[in-house]
């Protein structure tokens, strides 16, 4: 049986350092963490067990998402669970409800279960200093990488924002409004709006201030009467598909038609968008693929001491029937 001392010798460090790395009980440099985990993997080291009298339990990973009810995260979760099932890991799930303050408590609860690693979709990875300073191997899902979290699986949301805006511009739209959840609750939405601004600036069109509403609820009662009167948009881009469907319902409550009176587009490519009539125009993000990739990357980092990586997945514009071509209007 491989001992801690053998792992320490292979890694070229002290027994205390090996203990801190494997038990996550103290600060250790990222380079030393990788050395110790690589040595443990190469030697086939496995902990002898928990405290006396405790039963050996199945390893688990922790997953934090903003909302369990959003089909985007449901698709990612399904892929994560399938990948972890094959690897013999359980999956613990927590949600933040798009609230940065709740993220801290949710991650702390996951850490109480001593997970092998974490997969996190946070509100804004750039402002996650409040999270515990000592974390197991961690992969961001949907968020772009940061200095603290270099391991990430995401799409290029800024480019996706440019692409959908350019699609509307190419169809003759000039007054385009961006409707979003609060930007401090989603760096994905912030980047998509930045892409909208890029495309509008490049076309020398007026950039309209984004309308920000809560992500969690209110879609079914969304009132756009004042905003439609103020901006008179010919098209609206919503920061995700669920919100886009809420925007379509709000437009119809005003006695208007989509796309005859106002065009609508979204992001994510959820299945329900293909079932509506007309089908939703959207930017399709491969959420299931992203979940599987994040799970595989986490296992590589945790079990094989692979260095953190940034994996960027491709998005695809999916034209539907909710965008009107205004170029032939007289």
Describe this entry's structure for a reader.
This protein is α/β, with parallel strands linked by helices and 330 residues long. Helix 2 packs across helix 3 and helix 4 runs parallel beside helix 11. Strand 6, helix 7 and strand 7 form a beta-alpha-beta unit. It has eleven helices and twelve strands. Among the domains are: 53 residues, 434 Repressor (Amino-terminal Domain); 129 residues, Rossmann fold, CATH 3.40.50. The strands form two sheets. Strands 2-1-3-4-5-11 form a six-stranded parallel β-sheet, with helices on both faces. This is DNA-binding LacI/PurR family transcriptional regulator. It holds the Pfam family Peripla_BP_3. InterPro entries: HTH_LacI, LacI/GalR-like_sensor, Lambda_DNA-bd_dom_sf, Peripla_BP_I.
Give the SSE map.
Blueprint: H1 4-11, H2 15-23, H3 30-43, E1 60-65, H4 71-87, E2 90-95, H5 100-111, E3 118-120, E4 138-141, E5 152-155, H6 157-170, E6 176-181, H7 187-202, E7 211-213, H8 225-231, E8 235-238, H9 241-253, E9 263-268, H10 271-275, E10 281-284, H11 287-304, E11 310-313, E12 316-318
Helix pairs in contact: 1-2, 1-3, 2-3, 3-11, 4-11, 6-7
Domain HTH lacI-type: 2-47
Protein name: DNA-binding LacI/PurR family transcriptional regulator
Pfam family, one: LacI
């Amino acid at each position: 049986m491989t001992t801690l001392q053998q792992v320490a010798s292979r890694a070229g460090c002290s027994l205390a350092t090996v203990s801190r790395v494997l038990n996550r009980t103290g600060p250790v440099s990222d380079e030393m963490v990788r050395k110790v985990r690589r040595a443990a993997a190469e030697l086939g080291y496995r902990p002898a067990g928990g405290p006396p009298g405790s039963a050996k339990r199945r390893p688990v990973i922790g997953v934090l998402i903003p909302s369990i009810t959003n089909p985007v995260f449901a698709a990612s979760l399904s892929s994560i669970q399938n990948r972890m099932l094959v690897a013999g890991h359980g999956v613990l799930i927590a949600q933040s409800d798009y609230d940065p303050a709740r993220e801290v408590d949710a991650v702390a609860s996951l850490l109480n279960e001593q997970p092998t690693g974490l997969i996190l979709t946070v509100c804004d990875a750039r402002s996650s200093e409040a999270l515990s300073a000592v974390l197991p191997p961690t992969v961001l899902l949907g968020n772009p990488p940061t200095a603290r979290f270099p391991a990430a699986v995401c799409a290029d949301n800024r480019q996706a924002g440019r692409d959908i805006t350019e699609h509307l511009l190419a169809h003759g739209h000039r007054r385009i409004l961006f409707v979003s959840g609060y930007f401090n609750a989603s760096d994905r939405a912030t980047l998509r709006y930045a892409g909208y601004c890029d495309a509008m600036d490049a076309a020398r069109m007026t950039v309209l201030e984004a309308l920000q509403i809560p992500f969690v609820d209110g879609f079914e009662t969304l009132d756009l009467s004042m905003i439609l009167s103020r901006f008179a948009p010919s098209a609206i881009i919503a920061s995700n598909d669920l919100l886009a469907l809420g925007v379509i319902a709000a437009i119809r409550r005003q006695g208007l038609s989509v796309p005859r009176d106002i065009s609508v587009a979204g992001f994510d490519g959820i299945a329900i968008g293909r079932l509506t009539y007309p089908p939703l125009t959207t930017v399709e993000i491969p959420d299931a693929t992203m979940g599987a990739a994040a799970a595989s990357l986490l296992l590589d980092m945790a079990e094989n001491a692979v260095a953190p990586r940034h994996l960027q997945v491709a998005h695809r514009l999916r034209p539907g029937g909710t965008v009107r071509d205004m170029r032939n209007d007289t």
